[in-house]
Amino acid sequence: MARIDLDLAHSYKTDPQRDEDYALLPLKMSFRDGGAYALLGPSGCGKTTLLNIISGLLQPSHGTVSFGDRDVTRLSPQQRNIAQVFQFPVVYDTMTVAQNLAFPLRNRGVAPERIKQRVGQIAEMLEMSGQLDQRAAGLAADAKQKISLGRGLVREDVSAVLFDEPLTVIDPHLKWQLRRKLKQIHHELKLTLVYVTHDQVEALTFADEVVVMTRGKAVQVGSADQLFERPEHTFVGHFIGSPGMNFLPARYTEGRLQIGALSVAVPENRAEALQQAQELTLGVRPEYVAPAAAGDAHAVPVQITQAQDIGTHWLVTGRVGDGAQAATIKARLTPERPAPRVGDTVWWSVVGAHTCFYKNDLRIA
Ligand SMILES: Nc1ncnc2c1ncn2[C@@H]1O[C@H](COP(=O)(O)OP(=O)(O)OP(=O)(O)O)[C@@H](O)[C@H]1O
C-alpha cells in the first residue's frame, strides 16, 4: 500500500482552451495510506474520470500521479497494483463463490493454504460463508455484486481498492447493511479505499474523508462533521444536508449585516473577517435556524409559506424580506406548541456560532 498523490488536470479534448474544456480542473490532492475516501458529487462532475486516473485506466492530459515516491502516471492498473469494483458484477458464472473469491490470489501465485484462509475471512465478512460452494450462475444480482466486492478486497498487497458506485444493483435494505459492512471491513483490513458515489448518505457513512466535487473541481476534502459544520464552498453547503444550507445575500456595514431592508447584529469575533468583504452571502443550515423573540438582534422576521410535520420535527419554509429582495429560508424545528402556521410571521435567529459567511462562493468566516 502507498500514499497516493495527485497533481494534475484532465481534458478529453486535444486542445483545451477554456475551463469548460476540462473534465478535471487543476487539482492537488493526497490520499493517506490506509484511508477510506469517497468522491462525491452530481453526475458529470468528474468522479469517474478522477477514479480512472488513479487506477491507470486513464492517463491525465496534464500532470502526475504518484504512489509513495514512485511516479506511476504512465503505468497500467496491473502495474500500479490496483483492485477495482465496478457498478455491475464481474464474476465467473461457471465458478463457485469460493473459486471466484480465490481468483485474484491464485493469479498472483499465493499459497493454497493462505488462499483458503483469506477466502474464508472475506466470505465471513460479507456473510457468504454458507454459499462458498455454490455456483455463481445461480445467484441473484446482489449476491454476485457481493462476490465482486469480495474479489476487490481479497488481496492484501494492493496499492488501493477503487469502487465505482458499487451498490447500484443492490436492493435498498441490503445497501444499508453493506455500507456499514464496508466501513467495518475497512477498519479490519486497513486497505486504502476510494469510493465513487453521488449519494451523500453513502459517502458520509462509508468514508473517513469525503472529496466533494462539482464541475471538475474538488471544492472540499473533509470529514462528515467538517462538511456539515464548516462548508468551505457554497456548493458543499447546498449539496450536503437535507435540505441543504440556506443562503441569504447580505451586506456588511459597521458591525451589522443588511439582509435586504433588514438589519441584524454580528458577534464581534466574526466582524473582523467580514469587514473586508462588504457584499457577501450568509449561510445557515436549517438545523441551526432557531426561533427567536420578536426584535432579537440576531434574528429576522420570516413569513411562513409551508410547514411539514416529518415525525421527529417540523420542516418549515418561510420568506425573508419583500419584493425583489425576498429570499427563501428553511428551518428544522423541534415539535413546538403551537404548531407553525402558514401565513404567520415569526422571528428566526440566523446569526450564531454555526453561521458561515461566503464571498464569491468561498467561506471567509
Ligand atoms: N470518454 C470521454 N470522452 C469525452 N468526454 C467524457 C468522457 N468521459 C467523460 N466525459 C465528460 O467528462 C465530464 C466528467 O465525466 P465523469 O464521467 O468523470 O463524471 P461523473 O461525476 O463520474 O458522472 P457520473 O456520475 O454521471 O458517472 C463530463 O462532462 C463527461 O461528459
TrEMBL record:
Keywords: ATP-binding, Cell membrane, Membrane, Nucleotide-binding, Transport. The lineage of its organism: Bacteria, Pseudomonadati, Pseudomonadota, Betaproteobacteria, Burkholderiales. The keyword Transport applies. It comes from the Bacteria. CDD domains: ABC_Carb_Solutes_like. This is ABC transporter ATP-binding protein. Residues 6-240 form the ABC transporter domain. Signal peptide: none annotated. PANTHER family: ABC TRANSPORTER ATP-BINDING PROTEIN (PTHR43875:SF14), MALTODEXTRIN IMPORT ATP-BINDING PROTEIN MSMX (PTHR43875). It comes from Caldimonas mangrovi. Gene3D superfamilies: 2.40.50.100, Nucleic acid-binding proteins, P-loop containing nucleotide triphosphate hydrolases.
